[in-house]
User: Fold histidine kinase from Geodermatophilus saharensis.
Amino acid sequence: MLAGVWAESRPPRPPVRVWRDWALFSGLVAISLIEMLLRDDRAWAPVVVGVSVVVAACLLWRRTRPLAAVAVAFGAVLAFDTARIVAIDATGLQSIAALLVLPYALLRWGAGREAVLGLGIILVWLPVTLVANPASPAEMVAGYGFFLFSAALGAAVRYRSRSHDREIEQVRLRQRNELARELHDTVGHRVSAIAVQAQAGRALSAADPERALATLITIEEEASRTLTEMRALVGVLRDGTDVDLAPRRGVVDVEQLARPGGEVPGVRVQVAGDIEAIDPAVSTALYLIAAEAVTNATRHASGATHVSVDVTTRRSRVHLRVHDDGGAGTTSPSHDGYGLRGMAERASLLGGTLRAGPDPGGGWSVDASLPRTVRPS
Assistant:
């Protein structure tokens, strides 16, 4: 634990010196001069005021140079108190109480080793000043308590600020993961479809030019939609918009997944029931699950000739089934990316279930069941 404290780095972005710091410095110097003028003992006035000015000046560097500020301020007061014990007969000024600000700044803005060394300097000074200013045991405990409370307050504020920064970073990480999933589920699906159609068009170009031309038209349409979705996602990244505000597709767009068969598996889509009453979040999840399942079937289903997509709306739930007639063990992607895991996560987050695997009747199927409406958490 001590090694971890020693290796602790400084918090980033310490505040720059502002007008309030100069106002504090000016106020402390003015109070020191006024206090000195009101005292009867003025024999060591220049020394006493000089120490007060040094302490006030150190406050200007308490954030950017916390250890140096503590060392200079408490070093000056330590030398002054030592001289009071040994050689001179002078009393300190009440304005030196500004020293209480430095332990707070040390623990708030200092590195771990700076905090340890600075607290060591403070703990060396405290018994010396208590000798120079004789005090009762209760006053001694109170003196230690004041400085330890100041340091503890600085550490608490530092911990709270770090926790807040960590929460912000976690939110950003979740947004990046969400955007990565959106890229995979929407743009990735369309790029895969474009690649498959391009392969089919190349195969048909010599034997059937008309079908090859129709394939090129389909590629053009898919590319336009992909470009639109990509621009929307890039706009979210550029403008800092909440990910949830990005354009989303829904069940009504599932029918766009349909395509005729040929060189690539055909996709048949059938939607039954009242899809208008489906919650938007559920509708989006259904579309993305269907698109991902179709993409997996196109990429990985060996020997598949057609893929069926069926969406059925019941009283309280919506059922999605994507089935292909390919090899039963070849539809699932081999890598653990945003595919099956992403589909299962989407269904689970909305209170639904998802099963993907070989179908007893042959081929591979993805079955998802989600509630029509999402209950507020």
